[in-house]
Amino acid sequence: MGQIEQNETAAISEYQPARTWTSFPAPQSSDFDRARDRSRQGQGSASGRAGQDDEPEIAERVATTLRQTYLETTRALVATVEARDPFTQRHSRTVSLYCEVIASRLGLSAERMESLRTAALLHDIGKIGIPDVILQKPGPLSDEEFEIVKRHPGIAIEILGHASFLSAELPIILHHHESFDGSGYPYGLAGDEIPFESRVLAVADAVDTMLSPRSYKRPYTRTHVQEELTTGAGSQFDPEVARVAHEWLGSMPRIADG
């Protein structure tokens, strides 16, 4: 057995599902709840104290700052994950952009689109718990390696589950590898069982992966990506989302073939 194979075997045999992600330093629900409670109290109590009218605004700023700080910290972790593999740098930001374009064509509300953008930025954070020897493998994964990779949505939820303000984003992240025909993971959901935003994220994620070089492949041409979307519609991808992405790619001459 060669050294690479020995390293892979060791990494797989020693791998254990993350048990410590729940200690990730995230603000607890109570942090945000206290800020909201202060806001409500300031709004509902009688005035009389100097500056009381400012309390709701201050409390809201505190809650917003906590949320922003946590998101920035989490995005820094995502950047760390992507930096481990030069082929995936800026992947999450690109996927977030693709999600926004596709979702706007599908008519998603501004609120749902914001949740989708955030989920897209964080969707691969669970890969921080996957060994480099698997993430950076230049060839196809073995069945055993793929089973390990399939754990990354669950690891993401363990990391992000502390933050109550991500309640809308967590299901999107957890289910972005489900397939429309039920053959995906982690739960084998199918069709409308899969959150719609997860279906959009799945297509955007696949489009960026196909258009980008990877350690195991050259970038696909735009035409090839469109063919894959057509082939995967109804099996891997939601047919409507795949159709919209196909049309969008066809309208973007800046995405060059070759």
What would you note in describing this structure?
- The structure is a single chain.
- The protein is an all-alpha fold and 258 residues long.
- The protein has a domain at 88-250: Hypothetical protein af1432 (Orthogonal Bundle).
- The protein has helices at residues 3-14, 29-44, 55-83, 91-106, 110-122, 132-135, 143-149, 152-160, 169-174, 196-211, 222-232, 239-250.
- It is globular.
- The two termini are 38 Å apart.
Short description:
The chain is mainly alpha-helical and 258 residues long. It contains 12 helices and no strands.
Give the helix/strand layout.
Layout: H1 3-14, H2 29-44, H3 55-83, H4 91-106, H5 110-122, H6 132-135, H7 143-149, H8 152-160, H9 169-174, H10 196-211, H11 222-232, H12 239-250
Helix pairs in contact: 2-3, 4-5, 4-10, 4-12, 5-10, 11-12
Task: For the structure shown, list the relevant keywords.
globular; mainly alpha; 59% helix; Hypothetical protein af1432; 12 helices; 258 residues
Largest beta-sheet characterization = none
Helix content: 55-70%
Strand proportion = under 5%
In one word, what is the shape?
Answer: globular
Taking all Cα atoms into account, the compactness measure Rg is 21 Å
Helices and strands, in N-to-C order? HHHHHHHHHHHH
In the CATH hierarchy, what is the architecture of the domain at 88-250 at level 2? Answer: Orthogonal Bundle
User: Which blocks of ≥5 consecutive residues have pLDDT under 50?
Assistant: 1-32, 42-48
Count of beta strands = 0
* Overall pLDDT: 81
CATH superfamily of the domain at 88-250: Hypothetical protein af1432
Count, helices: 12
- The CATH first-level class of the domain at 88-250 comes to Mainly Alpha
Structural class: mainly alpha
What is the CATH third-level topology name of the domain at 88-250?
Hypothetical protein af1432
Report the span from N to C terminus.
38 Å
